[in-house]
């Protein structure tokens, strides 16, 4: 499963909205997150995805790298961004920003969706996705204050979250 630990990201946008839960409205938010990672992160989605998007560089294209499988050249440069249509429910999202003077914000029961991968020469990939959550009124204000800001996040999948005793 996809996970991040203290990853530097950009909070590109926060879209506060209401969801209908029966007759009641419940506060919700779509947090658009952007980051750049090593292409091995694609293995979290499908073990064949990285090999479909990257190849070994040809002779003279790039120096030998320490990367063990050396999949650093973009396989199809004209393909553009690749959308991944899968949803990942039950995540815990921890957001830290600023000088570390305050405790990070922790949001539970987050759904990750709308993944988009942009393969980059050299073996990196830009990843954009939405984190769907139900913040309280204080948290929504803090999230909106982060729009277009850098932050450090940890995404913990349901299988790795601490279980209550």
Describe what you observe in this structure.
- The chain has helices at residues 49-53, 137-145, and strands at 4-21, 24-38, 54-55, 73-74, 82-84, 88-96, 105-120, 124-133, 149-156.
- The chain has 165 residues and is mainly beta.
- The protein has 2 domains: 1-37 and 84-113 and 134-159, no CATH class; 46-80, no CATH class.
- A 6-stranded antiparallel beta barrel has the order 1-2-8-7-6-9. A two-stranded antiparallel ribbon has the order 3-4.
- A hairpin with a 2-residue loop joins strand 1 and strand 2 (24-38).
- It is elongated, with a radius of gyration of 18 Å.
- The chain starts with a strand and ends in a 9-residue tail after the last strand.
- The mean pLDDT is 90.
Please, how many helices?
2
Domains (count): 2
- Please give the order of strands in the largest beta sheet: 1-2-8-7-6-9
Q: What share of residues are in beta strands?
A: over 45%
Gross morphology: elongated
- Share of helix among residues? under 10%
Task: Tell me the Rg in angstroms.
Answer: 18 Å
SSE topology string: EEHEEEEEEHE
Structural class: mainly beta
The N- and C-terminal alpha carbons lie at a distance of 24 Å
Number of strands: 9
The poorly predicted ranges are none
Average predicted confidence as pLDDT:
90
Q: Report the major sheet.
A: 6 strands, antiparallel, barrel
């Amino acid at each position: 499963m996809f996970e991040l630990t203290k990853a530097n990201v950009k909070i590109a946008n926060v879209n506060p909205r209401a969801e209908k839960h029966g007759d009641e409205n419940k506060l919700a938010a779509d947090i658009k997150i952007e980051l750049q990672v090593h292409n091995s992160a694609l293995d979290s989605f499908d073990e064949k995805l990285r090999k479909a998007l990257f190849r070994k560089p040809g002779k003279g294209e790039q120096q030998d790298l320490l990367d063990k499988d050396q999949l650093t050249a973009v396989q199809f440069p004209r393909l553009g961004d690749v959308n991944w249509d899968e949803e990942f429910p039950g995540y815990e999202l921890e957001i830290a920003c600023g000088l570390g003077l305050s405790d990070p914000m922790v949001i539970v029961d987050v759904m990750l969706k709308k993944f988009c991968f942009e393969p980059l020469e050299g073996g990196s990939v830009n990843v954009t996705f939405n984190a769907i959550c139900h913040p309280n009124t204080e948290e929504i204000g803090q999230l909106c204050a982060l729009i277009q800001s850098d932050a450090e996040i940890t995404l913990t999948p349901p299988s790795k979250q601490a279980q209550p005793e």
